[in-house]
Amino acid sequence: MQTRIFSSAEISQAAELLKKGEIVAFPTETVYGLGGNVFSLEAIQKIYQVKGRPQDNPLIVHLSHIMDIERLAIAVPDEFYLLAEAFFPGPLTLVLKRNPNIPSSVCAGLNSIAVRMPAHPIAIDLISAVGNPLVAPSANISGKPSSTNLNHVLQDFQGKIAGVIDGGDCPLGIESTVLSLIDPAVPKLLRPGEITSNQIEKILKRKISSFEKEKDGHLALVSPGMKYRHYAPNAPLRLFSSFLKLSAYIASVPFLKRMLLSSQKIENSFPLCDCFFLSNQTLYNLLRQADEKGYEEVVVFCDEKILNNQALMNRLTKAAEK
Ligand code: AMP
Ligand code: MG
Questions:
Q1: Measured CA angle at 57 (ends 216, 16), to 5 deg
Q2: Which residue's CA is the nearest one to ligand 1's atom 1?
């Protein structure tokens, strides 16, 4: 299969492919998504297959108009509308009760459904042109770093999907916040992102819970995600919150081809490492470069700024070696 590359002026051609049940990747403000028509069983199946995604990991459904929520979910609580008013379009995904009309394979057999409205003109125009919401899991081979530009998508899916729309670099670079509204007693943060728990709590005027938070408020440094390793480069990725421990570790194994990521200028202290600036926007590009350039190890200095960035720490711990 030849993968067609569309410009932002060719959205209607991409929409035609999606209407036929084909897969087209497209940019959002977070990362690139692997788009498929939510009502096409064939498209859903293809997405799981090309990504190599475990069948029990559900897809997020993207809509372009709030009215479409009734097609996707039932018993939509008032808090959904409060959050939608505050944050849609934007990087917040909300989990609701699935409308039985939605194929259960979209949601990996769950009775719930995750929905969001992306804040990217190409994504919104594409969904509107198709006339149906689109599933759009992150456009990466399962377990690997997400895609934040056209080249990343082509590296993983050239020849395997019908098309991709080029929207340049994704402005945020990290996936959406995921919040479940299934339990009326307490909304639950399932994945941290650009929109923080504090912002959500301000709108809801009540506390939400997070199963990933540790007592000290920081996400676990070295324990990767509960079930799957995510976002991982081929090389081992190690996290250090202490500069002394980082220095001692590097001195103990000095001659590896090593990528060192930090939000500070620390290259003078580590002349044998290749140092790069780490942020939400640079993370996935750097992890992909680690693979392309054959780095033997990726080491991250997690200073206060990075430790306090819940979304970034979540991706780093999931990518880190156990
Ligand atoms: P990705 O599409 O790669 O950004 O990942 C989507 C994330 O949303 C995964 O962590 C899923 O587990 C989560 N997700 C999608 N649908 C649901 C759902 N119905 N209930 C809970 N989590 C969901
Ligand atoms: Mg993903």
A1: 125
A2: 137
